[in-house]
Design goal:
single chain, 242 residues, alpha+beta, Sortase, Chain: A, 8-stranded mixed barrel, 4 helices, disordered N terminus
Length: 242
């Protein structure tokens, strides 16, 4: 009997070592699986990737990198009280000095996100937001880049409080908006912040809200992981529609 007990006692350290090894192997496998999933979601860089901008996590959309010509800008028309062009010095680095960028009206995608233009050189205005000069909030989005080229809002993150961004309407009237605040938020935070983007940061004043992508590109989610969100208020001397 004592021989069997002694034999078992001698094997106990080996059993313990074996259990420890199995535990460590299990931990390593778990870490490897987590790491693979994490880097699949965080994969990419902040620029030169396909971009989609929206109110919520967007639908996948192919983008168009065909540059807009001067003739196309001049020929662009919209109803008289709709936004026609966006003018801002932050766009000059991408579009050239005194950039004037075409604005097109859009609705919502099937997922409930604000739609955007396929062209990375055009801007989308949410048609159910306010028109310039009507006292509400004008909501606009645009691409920060495409697979190989910088988009119209690539330098939106460089705007500063006090900068002026101008909208020209279809009737030629100009509306200047002064930048009030800038936020860079992860998608979930940006979605929660959207009610703020739909109203003026200064009660009683007309405002302009701009949205674009920023941050790392997620191959799994097919979008950048953050949003740059800018709010600006109409300057006092701008015309207001009755």
């Amino acid at each position: 009997m004592s021989l069997r007990i002694n034999s078992l006692v001698r094997r106990i350290p080996h059993i313990i070592v074996g259990l420890i090894v199995l535990f460590l192997v299990g931990c390593l496998v778990k870490v490897a699986i987590w790491e693979h999933v994490y880097y699949s979601e965080k994969e990419g860089s902040t620029r030169h990737s396909i971009v989609e901008v929206g109110v919520t996590a967007p639908d996948v959309q192919e983008v168009d990198e065909t540059e807009v010509t001067t003739e196309q800008v001049k020929a662009h028309t919209v109803p008289s009280d709709h936004p026609r062009y966006l003018i801002g010095t932050f766009m000059n680095k991408t579009m050239g000095v005194n950039a004037k960028v075409n604005i097109f009206d859009v609705g919502l995608t099937s997922s409930g996100a604000m739609a955007t233009r396929a062209s990375i050189f055009e801007i989308a205005w949410y048609r159910d937001s306010s028109k310039p000069g009507y006292g509400g909030t004008v909501l606009i989005n645009g691409h920060n880049s495409g697979p190989t080229k910088r988009g119209v809002f690539d330098y939106l993150q460089d705007v500063k409080k006090g900068d002026i961004i101008t909208i020209e309407r279809g009737d030629g009237l100009l509306f200047d908006y002064e930048v009030y605040d800038i936020e860079s938020l992860l998608i979930a935070e940006a979605n929660a912040y959207m009610p703020n983007m739909m109203q003026s940061p200064v009660p009683g004043k007309e405002s302009l809200s701009l949205i674009s992508c920023t941050g790392e590109w997620s191959q799994n989610q097919r979008t950048h992981l953050s949003r740059i969100m800018v709010r600006a208020v109409l300057v006092e001397n701008a015309p207001i529609e009755d």
